[in-house]
Amino acid sequence: MKNDEPTVGRRAVLRTAVFLGVAAASGLLSVSGEEGAPGPGPGSGTGPQAGPQAGPGAQPAAGAPGLRAQALPEKSYRLRPMTAEQPMRPAAVKPAVRTRPILELPADAAASGAMVLTFDDGPDPRYTPAILDTLARYGVRAMFFVCGEMADENRDLLRRMAAEGHIIGNHTWTHPLIPQLSRPALASEIGRTSEVVHQAVGEAPLWFRAPYGAWNRAAFEIGAELGMEPLAWTVDTLDWKEPGTTTIISRVLGGAAPGVIVLSHDAGGNRSQSVQAISSYLPQLLARGYRMTLPTLPPR
What we know:
The protein is built from nine helices and ten strands.
């Protein structure tokens, strides 16, 4: 029987080889690499000795060193990019590029006796808080077109404006004459201001006003690119000239009408007359039946 032992051993080896050959041909087994040397990671397919790789999660076959079980086909959702698993967010719709600014409220708002009060150039800690106090006393909201250099130094006032329901608009960084600026310089003036407001209150401005009312096409285009609508005014108090409190009051009351937008200032000089004026003309406007409101964004 000793002479038969090699024959029996050879038969066992042959049977094993046949089994492995069939298994490999049927896709049940695949070669992973040299025995004792770790093959490349799943899916790498690189390296000087890389061979056919099993899929992620495959386990070595019991009793067969160097052989790894072929992974089952992955589910379809595993084959999609990770971004496909994230909810789709609608792209922000930018406003159309206008050729002139909005000057007054739409007819439906005007029909209800609505007016808008706006203040430019701030915020200034010497005057803005007093104007905010008066607005709060009468439960009125207004718009503040801020300059970036002032806003950057008075972020607490920006936060108060937002907390009390006022609209913060963009009035450039340094209040330049826009037509004298290059396009990159103007983009910086407007963009930096929006960034400061966003950092302070969590939202970038949706309204833009050109200093001195000096608009050009670049201003309209850059404003629209940043998601802002251009807003001008109907009644100019000329309070920046410091004409006297009585004159400012007279100009507001004389120009009051449904749909108008009033321009005043809370910075850029001595604005004590503006502070005193609003404490007088605001209750008179309300007594006449006017409703101080905020503009709504046009459909986009």
